[in-house]
Amino acid sequence: MDKAKVLPPALTAGLLERRDSTTSNEDSLVGLEKTPTQVKMRSASRRPKKVVKKPALPAHVVQARECHNNVEKQYRTRLKQKFERLLAVLQASKAKDESGHEEDSEAPGCGYSRGEVLDFARQRILALEEENRHLSDQVQHLDRGFTIV
Predict the structure, then answer these.
(1) How far is residue 145's CA from residue 73's CA, in Å, rounded to a whole number?
(2) 120: closest CA among 50, 16, 41, 17?
(3) What is the rounded distance in angstroms from the CA atom of residue 80 to the CA atom of residue 73?
(4) Domain assignments of the chain as residue spans, ordered by start
């Protein structure tokens, strides 16, 4: 379970999904292209529900349920889109870092679960923190070198 899946090279092309006009805070990403993405999220398989006759409900209850169901569906759709954008950003970032050398990868037709996307994000954040520490050490070392001379 500790082993994380490596992003397939076919998906690490650095392509990003076009953003909606409602995502103004995400437009501040620097250096990322605004082209359609090819990320694929895994979806839960569903069995058809058994239809059971229920007594008729009042119209206001039916209408309230429909409104609630529509709101929930919109929420799930927005959440899925945000996970897809996160996966696209992670893949674009990884593609920039690797720039040529490949590692083991999975089949490009494979989708990623939301948990896997969060694991990729956590790993990327940890890698960036380590890189930040390394670069800070280099800057301090260079500063010490210039002050001695």
Answers:
(1) 59
(2) 41
(3) 11
(4) 1-22+60-149
Whether pTM exceeds 0.90 = no
Rounded Cα–Cα distance for residues 54 and 65 (Å) = 15
Where would I find the beta strands (DSSP E) of the chain?
none
Q: pLDDT per residue over 94-127, tens digit each? A: 888 777 555 545 545 678 999 999 999 999 999 9
Residue among 12, 10, 32, 43 at smallest CA distance from 120: 12
Amino acid found at 1: M
Measured in whole angstroms, how far is the alpha carbon of residue 31 from the centre of its chain? 17
Three-class SS state of 32: coil
CA distance 105 to 102: 8
